[in-house]
Amino acid sequence: MYNARTAEIIDIVDDENKVIGKASAEEVYKERLNHRTVHVLVFNDIGELFLIKGSAQHAYCPGYWFSSASGNVRHNETYEQAARRLLREWTGIETRIIPVYQGHYDHYKMRKFIKTFRAQADGKIPINPNLAIAGRWFSVPVVLEMIAKNEEVHPELAHIMEAIYSRATAEQAESSDIQY
Predict the structure, then answer these.
(1) Start-to-end Cα distance in the chain
(2) Coil, strand or helix: which one is 176?
(3) Which fold has domain 4-174?
(4) pLDDT, tens digit, for every residue of 22-31?
(5) Which of 5, 14, 18, 97 can pair with 117 through a Cys bridge, CB separation 3.0 to 4.6 Å?
(6) Which pLDDT tens digit goes with each residue over 50-81?
(7) CA distances from 43 to 24, 35, 88, 149 (A)
(8) How far apart are CA 2 and CA 38, in angstroms?
(9) Is the Cβ–Cβ distance between 9 and 36 less than 8 Å?
(10) Burial profile 60-85: b = 16 or more Cβ within 10 angstroms, e = fewer
(11) CA 162 to CA 158: how far, in whole Å?
């Protein structure tokens, strides 16, 4: 049986996000090696965010709400290439993506360098049944409330949302011209 974690080769990076090697995703997680990930947040024209509920096949946080698309950046792949690939794999969507956040997330003695993109889509979004059991539109305040209540939101999504929206709130306090 095909196992994406065994087959997927990803870059290993140092604490400054410089490539220092490569390994299977399975080895990266087993050995807690630093690596790169991407997330895509798909919004509709009224500002709702499309989240995907991960399938039972997910090694980490099955049944939790994930970003619209997320995953590892493969060996020799850019963040943008990975984001486009994963958006197609999770939802079938091919659309323009815009970078909105880049940072790191320290997780169980490994550092994940995360780049997050925003995309626009409306209506019913198909989901890959091998990766997800549901997909749904949420308002941003509802997602932030789910995170605050420690509901089943993937920790990386929680980290990203808190980083983006706490930064937006701080910037809005400094300038009334900023619109999100």
Answers:
(1) 44
(2) coil
(3) Nucleoside Triphosphate Pyrophosphohydrolase (3.90.79)
(4) 999 999 988 9
(5) 97
(6) 999 887 676 666 667 889 999 999 999 999 99
(7) 32, 27, 16, 22
(8) 22
(9) no
(10) eeeebbbbbbbbbbbeebebeebbbb
(11) 6
